[in-house]
Design a protein that fits this description.
- It is flat and about 60 Å long.
- It has helices at about 10-50, 55-60, 95-100, 105-110; strands at about 75, 80-85.
- It has a two-stranded antiparallel sheet.
- The chain is mainly α.
- A hairpin with a 2-residue loop joins strand 1 (about 75) and strand 2.
- The longest helix is centred in the N-terminal third of the chain and has 40 residues, at about 10-50.
């Protein structure tokens, strides 16, 4: 067990730093526990699958996806409502033109 800390002697700033440190460590600990449990589960699934002449993917019903999920549109061209932009990647020409004309990004939001 770690050494005892007299919390009453710490300043508010020190207490907040300690709190952030504890929260970060709790999150890290939880992440490690989840990763260990997942590894254990995958190992067990592989063992069971091999026993039955299958793969772990077949047993767990995994499908590999080569595509990322699409992002919904965030902005629409007021001059051509068919043209939209998610706000990711390069700005389309119509968006740049609207900005140059003095329009705000908020005014183009869907």
């Amino acid at each position: 067990m770690a050494a005892k800390i007299d919390l009453g002697k710490l300043s508010e700033k020190e207490l907040m730093a300690l709190k952030r440190g504890v929260e970060k460590e709790l999150k890290t600990s939880r992440t490690r526990a989840i990763a260990a449990a997942m590894q254990e589960l995958q190992d067990a699934a592989r063992k069971i699958a091999r026993k039955h002449g299958l793969t772990a993917g077949e047993v767990l019903g995994r499908k590999r996806s080569s595509r990322k999920a699409s992002v919904s549109a965030k902005y629409r061209n007021p001059n051509d409502p068919g043209q939209t932009w998610s706000g990711r990647g390069r700005q389309p020409a119509w968006f740049k033109e609207a900005m140059d004309e003095g329009k705000s990004a908020d005014s183009l939001e869907i």
